[in-house]
Specification:
By secondary structure, the protein is mainly alpha-helical. The chain has a domain at about 5-80. Helix content is about 65%, strand content about 5%. The chain is built from 6 helices and 2 strands; from the N terminus they run H-H-H-E-E-H-H-H. Strands 1-2 form a two-stranded antiparallel sheet. Helix 2 crosses helix 3 (about 35-45). The longest helix is centred in the middle third of the chain and has 21 residues, at about 60-80. The model is unreliable at about 50-55 (pLDDT under 50).
Length: about 140
Amino acid sequence: MLADDETRHWAERLAAATAPQEIGVAGGVLEAYLAGGSQRQAILRPGRTGSGSAGVELVTALAAIMHAIDVAGVHLRALLAAAATGNSLNPLALIVGFKAYRSPKARAPQDPPLDPELTARARTAVEMCPRLTRRLPR
């Protein structure tokens, strides 16, 4: 088994979001994709099912999506690792942060009103602390 439980869970979530009819085979498709080589080619290459010329072309959408993520991931990592990307995103993040800070909706919510009975008990406890500590043996 090449995939751990978390990776298998993500494959099922990916299948649910993109190809719900393939949720049941998501684990098998993931294992074949991770195995690479001929197993990966088998799930990526359209194959024939059935007999004779009445066969149906079949390639799982999940396998194609995994391959697209794999191919795009290499380029996305390179883009995110580039210094120019960081230099471009930093000012953008500051602008978004400033706008959120200045927005009246972004203000911190007010504390809920205090329970008067709880407040009175807390004050009593604070007032009693010095008296109790004086009574402690030294």
